[in-house]
Design goal:
7 strands, 7-stranded parallel β-sheet, alpha/beta, Rossmann fold, binds NADP nicotinamide-adenine-dinucleotide phosphate
């Protein structure tokens, strides 16, 4: 039977690729993001507007059951520590971490009603591997990882919670970092697998984590990073 998945963010990039896969398998997706973009217009996707940093968000009803929830919102705000403001840190904290907390507080009961639900959050390779200019995003995503592990313990066995930790992936979020042939080649060369990620690479991992195929996996941080976090290849 088709399942019901909620996406927070995900109107582009990884969300679009994942929505296509889930709909193809006969599931339905409700998307909440600032804009519909391409994901919101797919047949099988419903949409309601959401700015996750607003104090009173326009959340879709939470009656449930909800079989899975994916929290996508993120930023790539890379600056030397001396030029990154407190406001930058606060914004990243809101979008990456507090938005996920607010969402899961709101939908927790609806997820539990499914009896077999799965939550997928996103971190970054820069939590496990120190990288210059990543202080703000790494701090906020580090909080996501700790939160996810603790929540996975608290919500077991009815709701699984896992995190995908990507390296650089070719989505609208990473557009600036991948502008021009020179940057693209340098980015590909930095990875042991000699390419940067595609949205499908992250979507495949998320699809797996939402599915029965991963029914014995919870509380994990899963690197999807072309080998970046664990290999040193000359
Ligand atoms: N791409 C990379 O290189 C990379 C690397 C490491 C980690 N990540 C993480 O992977 C996750 C997915 O990113 P992606 O690369 O797939 O980026 P993406 O294609 O830009 O998707 C991010 C989505 O989040 C939504 N969003 C952003 N800010 C929002 C807000 N304030 N309120 C509501 N929705 C918001 C956007 O939709 P709207 O604009 O319509 O709201 C967008 O659809 C993010 O958490 C990111 O931090 C990505």
């Amino acid at each position: 039977m088709g399942k019901t998945f909620y996406f927070i963010g995900g109107s582009t990039g990884t969300g679009l690729s994942l929505a296509r896969k889930l709909i193809h398998e006969g599931h339905s997706v409700h998307l909440m993001a600032r804009t519909e973009n391409e994901t919101g217009q797919l047949e099988g996707v419903t949409f309601s507007p959401l700015q996750i940093t607003d104090e009173s968000p326009l959340f879709h009803p939470a009656e449930g059951p909800i079989d899975g929830l994916v929290y996508f919102p993120g930023t790539i705000n890379l600056k030397p520590f001396r030029s990154i403001s407190n406001h930058d840190f606060e914004t990243d904290w809101q979008i990456h971490f507090l938005g996920a907390v607010k969402t899961l507080r709101f939908y927790g009961e609806a997820l539990k009603k499914s009896g077999n639900a799965s939550v997928v959050l996103f971190s970054t390779v820069a939590v496990q591997t120190g990288m210059p200019f990543h202080t703000s995003v790494a701090a906020a995503k580090g909080a996501v990882e700790g939160f996810a592990r603790a929540l996975a313990a608290e919500w077991a066995p009815s709701v699984r919670v896992n995190v995908i930790a990507p390296s650089l992936t070719d989505t609208p979020l990473a557009e600036k970092l991948l502008k021009g042939d020179e940057r693209r080649k340098a980015a590909a060369d930095r990875h042991p697998l000699k390419r940067f990620g595609q949205p499908e690479n992250l979507a495949d991992a998320a699809r797996f984590l939402l599915s029965e195929e991963s029914s014995w996996i919870t509380g994990q941080i899963i690197p999807v990073d072309g080998g970046m976090s664990s290999l040193k290849v000359l």
